[in-house]
Amino acid sequence: MAAPRLRTGERPTICHDVVIVGAGFGGMYMLHRLRGLGLTARVFEQGSGVGGTWYWNRYPGARCDVESMQYSYSFSDELQQQWDWSERYAPQSEILAYANHVADRFDLRRDIQFDTRVDSAVFDEAARRWTVTTSDGASATAQFIVLATGCLSNAKMPEIDGLGDFKGQIHHTGHWPHREVDFSGLRVGVIGTGSSAIQSIPIIAEQARRLTVFQRTANFSVPARNAKLTEDERQWFRDNYPEIRRKAREEMRNGIFTEPPEKGAFDDSDGARRQNYEARWSRGGLTFMSAYNNLALDKAANDTAADFIRGKIADIVRDPDVAKRLQPDSHPVGSKRICVDTDYYATFNRDNVELVDLRDTPIARITADGIRAGDIDYPLDAIVFATGFDAMTGSVAKIEIRGREGRTLNGKWAEGPRTYLGLMSEGFPNLFLITGPGSPSVLSNMIVSIEQHVEWIADCLAHMRDEGLDCIEASRQSEDDWVAHVNEVAYGTLYPQANSWYMGANVPGKPRVFMPYIGGVGVYRQICNDVAAKGYQGFVMSAAPRSNPIAVHSA
Ligand code: FAD
Ligand code: NAP
Question: Tens of pLDDT along 285-326?
Fold first, then answer.
């Protein structure tokens, strides 16, 4: 049963130790860990259920691109031994069922208030507490806030003239209806060719009478090779989980267990390199980018992988002009999130599918009857916006957050997000971010990164309680140093060469800053552990004059 709602005018609940915003995988695990410490926590979630990403993104074909046996919590061995993933890449419905199972199994719902958006969070310097106000008009106070608001949770509709004029159905992949959307017999337009589009296009094409894909930037995609998992495959993971999880956390840059690349692309002959790419293409999945250790660093090395994929596109797509347009030529492979597909390129061989290259004919406007690109009208019954998210900072920015001296986080981040370790931002004491900008976050298997952040925050709060401390804040210097380091590492790679959402480039007016930390989850974890071991170096911790240490409220 979900937590009771506070009604307008009702006396606010003032006695939470922690308010958590968001009930995706981050918020759910945070709640579980805080309970383990004996702290009181309340989660506010604007959706009507748990699961975050997997609650909202119900578009056809939605599934994970990190293998299910790895895209899952590791904190409970019973859970990982008992849960049966059905496919190599679980579909959205199964991941959502898993999230619900976790909520039930750990009895999380009694502290989660659904259908409630956090609108503002204001720090009271004298009381050293946060007050949050919520969309139901209520307010609550807490000593700490954890923003588990998600990096890809703020679906972005593009600003295109005439959006309101369209008479047919409009859907955004990131905000999909909770009923089945049937495109049978319809003329459908999909705008975008990112991961969401690339997953949904082959399925929509099978249903729709006609599908028109509006592509602004061609993207690299590798085959998923999705398949049912056999019991033997599941058992192999279960038997080896301790080592698989350890390696994913400590040794892999992206938190995905695989054989790490030991050589660069030019350490192999042309033939051997091609064989390596072929083997990875046949195996399928994101680990294609682990073929060599310099693909993200050296443009010439990267070109060998990019050329290989372009060659595959030319092999698959029968119309050479369409194949050419589908071949990415504007960014290094991997500098935008590489996509993982089932029959994406082959879909363009279907008679009912058309590709519109917006580089030749940009969208002029949406009309009552469809989309006008250049001076051509494409009549449509439905438009799917697979146009992505205001990523990493978008959901945080929607909350009015006021820290010391009334300063707003949006004001502070006007030129781009600034954090220490992606965990805290100076001037905003006792406010933690999960997978925030400046942490590996979206460049990783995100459950690995979520677990690491949650556990670090929980350990930090336990330390503060043990020491009788009630306030923690990133120091200005440590934050400046970290931001400089994040930039330095990013600009040593090819990533900033792409107009990606990692750079904020997909949102007009958003500052161009490379937001995630590219140093790898293993290196990053070690840095965070060292910081903690050195007494939370770079953070300023204090006790109130009349001490108000945490855990005064029993759970
Ligand atoms: P979310 O799951 O985004 O949850 C955040 C929650 O916070 C949301 O439910 C939101 O409603 C709520 N919220 C936000 N603001 C407020 C507010 N002001 N008040 C109340 N509630 C609020 N990552 C991988 O590692 N592997 C994958 O295969 C993968 N596939 C993905 C597929 C899709 C379609 C998308 C969009 C993302 C994918 N990701 C993947 C990234 C995915 O977002 C993370 O893996 C993970 O689910 C994030 O969990 P989270 O709890 O941090 O955030
Ligand atoms: P995305 O990668 O940002 O892709 C959005 C697409 O829409 C891009 O092709 C973009 O073109 C296009 N677009 C945006 N505005 C447009 C406009 N005004 N006109 C024309 N085209 C426009 O978003 P996403 O596909 O939703 O994926 C976001 C992230 O979520 C992924 O990178 C991944 O991390 C995660 N995800 C994962 C999976 C998975 O496989 N498990 C599935 C979905 C999402 P430009 O490139 O030119 O900007």
Answer: 998 999 999 999 999 999 999 999 999 999 999 999 999 999
CA-to-CA dists, residue 513 to 44, 387, 393, 415, 441, angstroms: 29, 20, 11, 8, 15
Res 337: pLDDT: 95
Give pLDDT, residue 2.
53
The answer to whether residues 370 and 170 touch, using CB atoms and an 8 Å cutoff, is: no
Within 6 A (CB) of ligand 2 lie 64-65, 152, 158, 160, 173, 191-197, 199, 214, 216-217, 337, 340, 358, 363, 386-389, 442, 501, 506
Indicate whether 62 and 162 sit together in one domain: no
Give the model confidence (pLDDT) of 78-90 as tens digits. Answer: 999 999 999 999 9
Q: Is 173 in the pocket of ligand 1 (CB under 6 A)?
A: no
Buried b (16+ CB within 10 A) or exposed e, 121-137: bbbeeeebbbbbbbebe
Nearest ligand by distance to the CA of 199: 2
Report how far ligand 1's centroid is from the alpha carbon of 129 (Å): 27
**Residue 8, domain member (yes or no):** no
Q: For residue 216, give the ligand 2 atom closest to its CA.
A: 47
Same domain? 189 vs 119: no
State both tokens at 551. Answer: 């855990």
Q: Are strands 431-433 and 139-147 parallel, antiparallel or unpaired?
A: parallel
| Dihedral, 326, 327, 331, 337 alpha carbons, nearest 10 | 60
Q: Are residues 409 and 530 in the same domain?
A: yes
Q: Verify that 397 and 521 share a domain, yes or no.
A: yes
End-to-end CA distance of the chain: 17
**Statement to judge: residues 206 and 92 lie in one domain:** no
Residue 411 and residue 377 share a domain: no
Angle at 521 between CA 394 and CA 152, to 5 degrees: 20
**Residues ≥6 apart with Cβ < 8 Å to 239:** none
CA of 387 relative to ligand 2 center, distance in Å: 5
Q: Which ligand is nearest to the CA of 193?
A: 2
Closest-CA residue to 17 (of 148, 143, 110) = 143
Residues 175-203: pLDDT tens digits? 999 999 999 999 999 999 999 999 999 99
Q: Which of 426, 537, 534, 428 is nearest to 480 (CA)?
A: 426
Residue 351 sits in the same domain as residue 372: yes
Query: pTM for the complete prediction?
Result: 0.96
Overall domain count for the chain: 2
The atom of ligand 1 lying closest to the CA of 47 is 11
Measure Cα distances from 221 to 192, 287, 312, 313, 351 in Å: 14, 12, 10, 9, 22
Same domain, 474 and 348: no
